[in-house]
Design goal:
EC number: 2.1.1.-
Keywords: Methyltransferase, Transferase
Mean pLDDT: 93
Number of strands: 7
Strand content: 25-35%
CATH architecture: 3-Layer(aba) Sandwich
Protein name: Putative methylase RP545
Number of domains: 1
Enzyme class: transferase
Order of helices and strands: HEHEHEHEHEEE
Strand order of the largest sheet: 3-2-1-4-5-7-6
Largest sheet: 7 strands, mixed
Shape: globular
CATH class: Alpha Beta
Distance between the termini: 45 Å
InterPro entries: DNA_methylase_N6_adenine_CS, RNA_MeTrfase_RsmD, SAM-dependent_MTases_sf
Number of helices: 5
Radius of gyration: 15 Å
Length: about 180
């Protein structure tokens, strides 16, 4: 796993063979962050990474300057890998949580500037994730939620939908909570 930009730029963290995650490809991740660079002030952004897998997105967020990144991952091997990567990098801005994303979404009351979700593509409940996040009002005003998914899903009918971008077989749907004008 390679960190693309920021204070940990070009750092490679070897991913053990026992991890079963489907990490976001470097190409798709780099494209995603190129888009986000134009929308986000990294040093002022609190972020939530759901279904974190190897933690590549969460570590990229920390590397780019996010002062507070929570990532949620249920698999013990993946969670342990993320904790080791955090320790290796000295990433004190990263707060890994080992737990079920759906239970976490039921209990969380905090709002974030950026939320990223990359559930397993074969997860039966994948289609419910965006609505759960949006209904919980987890985005701050001006916040962005990015959902990674396969071509089988279309979320353009949901509230706060902004756009969908495609990078090979990876699809990112963007939702934005626009700041209300007085």
């Amino acid at each position: 796993m390679r960190i693309i930009s920021g204070k940990y730029k070009s750092r490679r963290i070897p991913v053990p063979a026992n991890l079963k995650a489907r990490p976001t490809t470097d190409f798709a991740r780099e494209s995603l962050f190129n888009v986000l660079n134009n929308l986000i002030e990294w040093e002022e952004t609190t972020a939530l990474d759901l279904f974190s897998g190897t933690g590549s997105v969460a570590l990229e967020l920390v590397s780019r300057g996010c002062p507070y990144v929570v990532n949620v991952e249920m698999n013990a091997n993946h969670y342990n890998f993320i904790c080791k990567a955090k320790e290796l990098l000295g990433a004190k801005e990263l707060f890994p949580i080992r737990g079920d994303v759906f239970k976490y979404l039921q209990s969380v009351h905090q709002q974030f500037d950026l939320i990223f979700a990359d559930p397993p593509y074969d997860l039966p409940e994948l289609g419910t994730v965006p609505l759960l996040v949006l209904e919980k009002n987890l985005l701050k005003e001006g916040g962005i939620f990015v959902m990674e998914h396969s071509k089988e899903y279309n979320f353009s009918h949901l509230p706060l939908f902004k756009e969908e971008r495609k990078y090979g077989s990876v699809h990112f749907t963007f939702f934005e909570k626009r700041e209300e004008r007085p």
